[in-house]
Amino acid sequence: MNRSCYQHLVFLFSIMVTAGCGIFFHVHCGVAMAQPSQAFSRLFTGDVATLLMQKLLTTTQTPCDDMSLKGVVSATQKHWIRAAGKERWEIENKFADMQQQLNPLLHQAGILDTTHPTQQEYDCVILLGAVLNRVRTRLAYVADLWKKGIRFKKLILLAGERALDSAREPEKEFFTPFTNLITIREGWKAPASLPTNEKDMMLFVYDQTKLPEGLRDIPMEVVYASRQPGERRATTADIAKEWASRNQKPGSILAISNQPYVSYQGATLQNALHSDTGWSLETVGHAANEQDSVAVILDALARTIYQEHQNVKARAHA
Fold this sequence. Notes:
Layout: H1 3-19, E1 23-28, E2 31-34, H2 38-43, E3 44-45, E4 48-49, H3 51-59, H4 69-79, H5 99-109, E5 121-122, E6 124-128, H6 132-147, E7 151-152, E8 155-160, H7 198-208, E9 220-225, H8 236-246, E10 252-258, H9 262-272, E11 280-286, H10 294-316
Parallel strand pairs: 5-7, 6-8, 6-10, 8-9, 10-11
Antiparallel strand pairs: 1-2, 1-11, 3-4
Helix pairs in contact: 3-5, 4-10, 6-7, 8-9, 9-10
């Protein structure tokens, strides 16, 4: 890469950090270049933890003698990650008494607030799967972007193999959207049977929701990933790899998540595409729900740091 190209990339990176955008994966000068997520770039300078990262470790009483990226990954994986086999909503909030001290730090890290697209047009928007109400929040965000003039040629729903959770996704919630951002479209008729898995649930929500004029005319497709043997569901990484394996034509992509998962899911999608050129990937999403516990947020942040570390290593061997 020549000097002028390098200088331009540094300039682009400085703009992204200052603007408060989501994770950005950009191709310039014929080389696939991945910019770290907003959260990661605020927590690490190169391979060293920033003062903000150190404050998060100290406030959560997380032992960490090595402030390198590798050392922080090890510490946060041990103390912030939920137990194997547990879902996010099953996490014990062991950091509840630290919430008042942690909230300002988490806002500074950029893991709680809404992130916005930087472009007006994209080749496709991908909506990442989640539990019912999260899917509705993400679709509402897509609808809001459309109303604001953001345009794209295709909408892709990324779904993973997962049975619906009757406690988190009860039957009544299929007919009573929890957010005023979503309304049921006029003339919609419920199917004979309700969805029992994530893929069918996402299609149900898409069909049920009133969308702004023109959005439903955009081609929509579903990408479905199976879970790994022994796992309860397909992970973000499983879905990202399945999606990447089907994408042969390079283009600009806007991925829709929500906080505190924007940085983690963006980094995971980035990893799935790290060896490809011609792609432009941005990941954005709505602000975190006030009901998200600090333990859930720190779990997401630990996964972000881990995935960014994997991306750093992948780029080093590219």
